[in-house]
Amino acid sequence: MNKSYYAIIPANVRYDRRLTANAKLLYGEITALCNEKGYCWARNSYFAELYGVSKTSISKWFSHLIEYGY
């Protein structure tokens, strides 16, 4: 994968101890996709394949981001 866009993970997300490292990484991936097209177009299946995890794991990471206001 030779993508040229970048991820942004702000300090409030990076240092939020309630979030797992994977949820923080997912946040960064969402920002990267927004940088590419101006919005995040990916589905849970895209992220699951990208990171080699289940869609259930992605859903949990999303749930934590939403729960904590991200």
What does this structure look like?
This protein has 70 residues and is mainly alpha-helical. 60% of the residues lie in helices and 0% in strands. The protein is built from four helices and no strands. The protein has helices at residues 11-14, 21-37, 44-51, 55-67. Helix 2 packs across helix 4 (55-67) and helix 3 packs across helix 4. The longest helix is centred in the middle third of the chain and has 17 residues, at 21-37. The relative contact order is 0.19. The mean pLDDT is 93.
Please write out the topology.
Blueprint lengths: L10 H4 L6 H17 L6 H8 L3 H13 L3
Helix pairs in contact: 2-4, 3-4
How far apart lie the N and C ends? Answer: 27 Å
- Model regions low in confidence, pLDDT < 50 over at least 5 residues: none
Give me the Rg, rounded: 12 Å
List SSEs in N-to-C order. HHHH
| Overall pLDDT confidence | 93
Secondary structure: helix percent:
55-70%
Describe the main β-sheet briefly: none
Strand tally, please? Answer: 0
Shape descriptor: globular
Beta-strand content bin: under 5%
Give the structural class: mainly alpha
Q: Work out the helix count.
A: 4
Give keywords.
60% helix; 4 helices
Put the structure in a nutshell:
The chain is mostly helical and 70 residues long. The chain has helices at 11-14, 21-37, 44-51, 55-67.
